């Protein structure tokens, strides 16, 4: 069976795989940025937080990946293996090899840097509940009545009909 699955995957043209990846990354980016809809998007505080987290998520891993493969080597490694190459001999060095490996790997991943910068800035830079977008979740009963929130978290149409009884048992 794995031979047939592998043969099927190998038969998919590279153009189709590239189109699928472009579509997938566009959807993931849109989904990630759609979480900003409850916050004040025009606030300079939020614009700076998003901008800094995107900038640092591109620049810090690029610095860490300088320690990957030397430019003189003939070894060609895909970019998604770069964090693991950096992990063994990156810029973060202590006497503990395991800590070096973990920190060099984590700090060379774009998602980790963006998450850390955004969380730290969002929780340290002062802003109102409206700017931060937490007003939606501050009162759970009011949030359940808000149509935009209810539409986001309700079950799909056919699944909702099947599990209509669940609201009577407290689920």
From TrEMBL:
Pfam families associated with the record: Xan_ur_permease (PF00860)
UniProt subcellular location: Membrane
Entry GO CC: membrane
Signal sequence residues: none
Bilayer disposition of the protein: Multi-pass membrane protein
Transmembrane segments: 15-34, 46-64, 101-121
GO molecular function: transmembrane transporter activity
Domain of life: Eukaryota
InterPro entries hit by this protein: NCS2
UniProt entry keywords in alphabetical sequence: Membrane, Transmembrane, Transmembrane helix
Family stated for the protein in its record: Belongs to the nucleobase:cation symporter-2 (NCS2) (TC 2.A.40) family.
Protein name (database record): Nucleobase-ascorbate transporter 12
Organism: Actinidia rufa
């Amino acid at each position: 069976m794995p031979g047939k699955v592998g043969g099927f995957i190998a038969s998919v043209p590279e153009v189709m795989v590239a189109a699928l990846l472009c579509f997938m990354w566009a959807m993931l980016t849109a989904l990630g940025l759609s979480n900003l809809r409850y916050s004040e998007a025009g606030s300079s505080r939020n614009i700076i937080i998003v901008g800094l987290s995107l900038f640092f998520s591109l620049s810090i891993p690029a610095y860490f990946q300088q320690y990957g493969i030397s430019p003189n080597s003939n070894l060609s490694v895909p970019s998604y293996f770069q964090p693991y190459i950096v992990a063994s001999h990156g810029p973060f060095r202590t006497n503990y090899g395991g800590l070096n490996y973990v920190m060099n790997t984590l700090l060379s991943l774009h998602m980790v840097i963006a998450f850390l910068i955004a969380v730290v800035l969002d929780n340290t830079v002062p802003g109102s509940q409206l700017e931060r977008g937490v007003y939606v979740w501050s009162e759970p009963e009011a949030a359940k009545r808000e149509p935009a929130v209810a539409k986001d978290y309700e079950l799909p149409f056919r699944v909702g009909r099947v599990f209509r009884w669940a609201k009577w048992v407290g689920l």
